[in-house]
Please model this.
Amino acid sequence: MREFRYERAADMAGALTLLAAEPGARPLGGGTNLVDLMKNGIERPALLVDLRDLPLGRIEPTADGGLRIGATVTNSDLAAHPDVRRRYPALAQAVLAGASGQLRNMATVGGNLLQRTRCGYFTDAAAPCNKRSPGSGCAALTGEHRNHAVLGASPHCVAVHPSDMAVALAAFDAVVVYETLDGPGELPLAEFYRPVDSNPQLETALPPGALITGVVLPPAPVAAASRYRKVRERASYAFAIGSLAAALDIRDGIVHDVRLAFGAVASRPWRARQAERALTGGPADAAAFAAAADAELAAARPLPHNGYKLPLMRNLAVSVLTELAEEAAR
Amino acid sequence: MTPATTTGLAPRAVGTPHVRLEGRDKVTGAARYAADFPADGLAHGWIVTSTVARGRIASVDDLPALKMPGVLAVLHHGNAPRLKEDFAGTFGPDATTQILQHDRVPHAGWPVACVVAETPEQAREAAETLVVTYDTEPHDVDFRPGHPAAYTPDASPAGPGRAEKGDVEAELAASDVVVDAHYSTPELYHNAMEPHAAMAYWDDGRLEVVDTTQGAYATAQDLAQLFGLDPASVHLRSEHVGGGFGSKAQVRAHLILAVMATNLLGRPVRIALTRPQMFSLIGHRSRTAQRVRLGAGTDGRLRALEHTALSATSTLREFVEPSAAYGRTMYDANGHRTVNNVLPLDVPTPTYMRAPGEAPGSFAMECALDELAERCGLDPIALRARNEPSVGPVSGLPYAGHRLLDCFAEGARRFGWAERDPRPGVRRDGRWLIGTGTAAASFFTGVFPVTAAVTANADGTFTVRITAADIGTGARTALTQLAVEALDVEPSRVRLLIADSDFGNAWLAGGSMGTRSWGWAIQLAARELRERLALGAAVPADGLTVRSDTEQAVRALAAAERHAYGAQFAEVAVDPGTGEIRVRRMLGIFAAGRIVNPLTARSQLTGGMIWGLSAALHEEGIRDAASGALVNADLAGYHYAAHADVPAIEADWLDDPDPDDPVGIKGIGEIGAVGSAAAVANAVWHATGVRHRDLPIRPDRVLIPEQERAGHS
Model:
């Protein structure tokens, strides 16, 4: 672990100035991912700018009936917030499905969005990895890729995004808001994560030097009947091998509104718009759910050892949507 | 050293539950582990390991590191002090001790340098900047049956490589029912909670060492040999050890390098391993590929039993995971063949790991028996009852205590086995399929000669000295209970000191032989002392000491098949849509000799059962074919069962007396880990109707079973 400087930013302008002055600087939230990566030499920042004194730790209603979640809100506080639990239950469930109680007490919303893949080749400095060392190759393509991407990958990188929270945010059309020295900006989550293409080292569309200040959830009545289910290789404290955020609004037996996002299948949380389109206006039964999942997965390009994700995601979609439909019928 | 806290033991303590004597010290932090000892002028080492799997070190560019702040030395093969080349220690010849002695890289993660600095942070930073270049050679980590380099070794500590009687092929041909199945288990890692660490310094002509080891005496002896020292000049202590499981039984790189560095620098040096280093420097359990062929009549009586196992070893040392030895004492057949093959590859050297051989071997054999029961239309317990041997199938020796079927009977009663519907795949609870499974367990009861000293002090107290190790098992408490019983005095008058090589020869904490071997020696010395005092012996000012050596007593023990036994039961829930498996309950009933401390014994047994659960469903070291290194060498990537995976687990035992055995204690450290993975796997079959013969039974394997996975693993 290399020596680094540490500054505690007093205000937003100070934080942005510190980050701008040092190209090797990284913002620090809970440090639950960044510090790990520093220990094994994957991240080597010259400066850490601690954001936890900034006034970004609140969850507030927006004027149009949505929620604004500050970037330094901890995962624990996010999951426990009454408005989140009542209006976006899948988000609270997703957060609680991740990490451990201790980590959730430290981890922040901004850091959660920016966490790095857990691909074992990315976290091993001796291994080839285009994301860590552009041009060095992708060891996962022909190596261990049981938990790698089946959707939206490229021959340059097949890593998956590890966040549970971001999957629920993707389902609910969250917008990432940020600040730069030139003023504020925002990115819908659908545009926040870049496609992999030939530059897997470029993960987000955030402008250089930008600081995430929060996430805005637009009002979404459908989200009140939502669920997050995560499948992993043990009962807790593991990253997903497949996860699903779903919300379902059925009126007169017909799907009026539906939200679906897949986790652990792509380099970003995967909003399943094909499936949503297939379901909307149609019947809410197992056959329709399966057909919708298949429509989304038609574009999947599994590798030799991760083809199980296709039946997994299909079964997960049918199971969770069926649960939601049955609960709506009660 | 912090003295162990002595809290009151009940008189006649053996057989009554007692919390660990040092428990308060451990939970308050007063107990010191190897990396906790302070020393004036302490320097810190950081090990650099190879990033290639095979080749030669071309260069070590130590000059930049030497210029970094606080750096005192960079040890590498070009400058390191020489060690005894043909070292042969407690476990025989061992080239893994030849740290920094040559330029050859035998596997990924091999030590190639060690940076010593004033602080661990300085050592680490310099170590990470050290540039080592290699002339790489093609490596081979391709573990597979049929590999041309595989061979049958003459013998391993578990017995001959091959044991055979009768005509297996003829018996198979004459059998009504034949099971022929292949099983595999992955690389498994011990990962004791306490990482390996050692501190070494010279004091008044003696090499003082604090190490975390399962056997202070053996480690001191081996260390002396390796460095060409008079054994009496090495003093090694390991008062508290945070788990071992077999990984702390040998002289390891951290200790060797700490001694090298202190010899070089003339000041105390401490070296601790990182968690990732614990995946390449301390041994592991090899992968296994096993084939079991069973032939039986329609009544389930075995005519043929063949178990062929393959494990990997390194190019440095032959270590055989003797999976196929399990059947040699468990099940008889006219045609009986068990073979343990081994395949040297460019991988780290495997070693003993909790129930070596028995754990993976029982998985294959006990699953194959479950398949045989299914094919014969027999209850799995009835099948085992039908095949209970009267003498050792290979040895022909009589059994000394053989209560396997009693364990099954009691376990079946408590588990509700009689109500079980044998049909697979027919019980549902929401999205979950439910199944139950059972398996037998056994672990041999060994003993080693040990010395002990018991002193009657002038103040009326007693001190017991023995080079035992308490690696978290509760051995310190159990041995104190045994000493109190043998001396027949108030517990508050007995103080037990352990884990100090000066206390003399003693077997290490391993092979489930510790408490049996040590307890025997304590019993001998304490009884003699009690008799001498009863006859009026005077206690001089410096105390009256009786020493014991169980060498003769151990030799006098009549030859017999001595084993602990157990019956394992598991209930699982499987979601066939997601591949998730949850174990809902486990029960283990054991016959394991005299139980000294029921509280810590239960913990040992349930711990072993959890070990089996974790092996069945979660654990797997994933070796990358291209690099030869592990892909998941940390606790985020290598999954142990989490708390949420561990259900209500019940372990209990039957009385298991052996009147011919002077000590009556059998080991309990390993038997819980035998058969438990098979019970879980058999329950998964009962839930789903699909046999899973490759561990761990991951969700992807449930979703796409072996039969559909042609060509992939």
Summary: Residues 1-8 of chain B have pLDDT under 50 and may be disordered. The two ends of chain B are 50 Å apart (CA to CA).
